[in-house]
C-alpha cells in the first residue's frame, strides 16, 4: 500500500514498529498499537516529539513518511496542506501505522526535550502598527528562563478568560526576558477584542512556551523568506538572529505582503535591517491598491524569481495563511528549490 494513502483502515490487527529519524541522525523505534496515534505511542515510550494541540489543528507535529504505510483520516480537517499530504507528510497526532514504517522529522532530537513553561508576563508596550496589526511587548520575570529558537511560538492566555491563543515571537531569543509579538486584530475575536478594548500597559498575561518545530536552521546558503501579514513575526526574529553574524550573514531575501497599503507595517523596521544587513533584500507587495499606488502590486509569492533559489544550499521559510503557504511551496518547487529545503508555519484563525 502506498505511504500516501489517506483513509484509515478499520480493524487492522497487530502492533507495528515505527522508526523516528531526526535531523541529527538520531533514531528511535516505537511500537504503535492499532488505533494508537504515532504521537501517543512515542510520548508513552519516552520519545519527546514536538507537539501542541494534539488535534491536528496547529500542524506542529508534522513528519514525513519515507518508508512503510502511515495514514491519516481523510475526512478530518487538519492544518496539513494537500500538497504536503501528497509529498508524504503526516501529523503524528492524527497518524496511524498500517505497517512497519520510517518517519523523518526535520528537527534535531534535542528540540523535543524543550519543556514549555508557564509564567506571568507584564505588558510593557502596546502599539498599533497599522489598521489591523498590534505590536505587543511583554516582560517576563527576570528569574524566568525563556529560551527559544527564532521561528518558534508561545501561547498567550487572554486575561479574564480561560482561552489561549498562539503567536510567533517577533523578537530574537537574545532579547529575553523581553518578548515581542505581532498580532493581527480581527473584527471579532477574544484576543482581538481584548487588545482593542481593554488591554493596557501594566496588565499581566500568562505565557506558555516555547512551542513549535518551525525554526531557523544553520544556513548552508542563501535564505528566502516569504511572509504574509503577521507571518512577518517569526521572520523578524530570524533576521535579528542572522544579522549579528555581520559579514558572515547569508544573502537573504524577504518577500513580504499584505492585502492593502493601509495594512502594511514595519516599513521603518525593515528599512533599518536593510541598513544593518548589506546582503538583505526586501520586496514588499500589496494584493490591491488604489490607482496611482507606486509600490509593488501582487502577492509575496508573485515576487519570487528563479534567480532567488538558484544558489546551492538555498533554504526557504514561509509563514502566513494556508493559501499563501501552498502557493509559495508550489512556486518555489516550480522554480527548482527542493521540497526538503522549504519550511513553513501556517496561520489559521482560532475558533472564537
TrEMBL record:
Required co-factor?
[2Fe-2S] cluster
Q: Which residues form the 2Fe-2S ferredoxin-type domain?
A: 16-109
Could you tell me which residue ranges the FAD-binding FR-type domain spans? 116-217
What Pfam families does the database record attribute to this sequence? FAD_binding_6, Fer2, NAD_binding_1
PROSITE patterns referenced in this protein's UniProt entry, alphabetically = 2FE2S_FER_1, 2FE2S_FER_2, FAD_FR
One Gene Ontology MF term:
oxidoreductase activity
Q: What InterPro entries does the annotation carry?
A: 2Fe-2S_ferredoxin-like_sf, 2Fe-2S_ferredoxin-type, 2Fe2S_fd_BS, BenC-like_FAD_NAD-bd, Beta-grasp_dom_sf, Cbr1-like_FAD-bd_dom, FAD-bd_FR_type, Flavoprot_Pyr_Nucl_cyt_Rdtase
Instruction: Fetch the PANTHER family from UniProt.
Output: NADH OXIDOREDUCTASE HCR, PROTEIN RFBI
Protein name in UniProt: Oxidoreductase FAD-binding domain protein
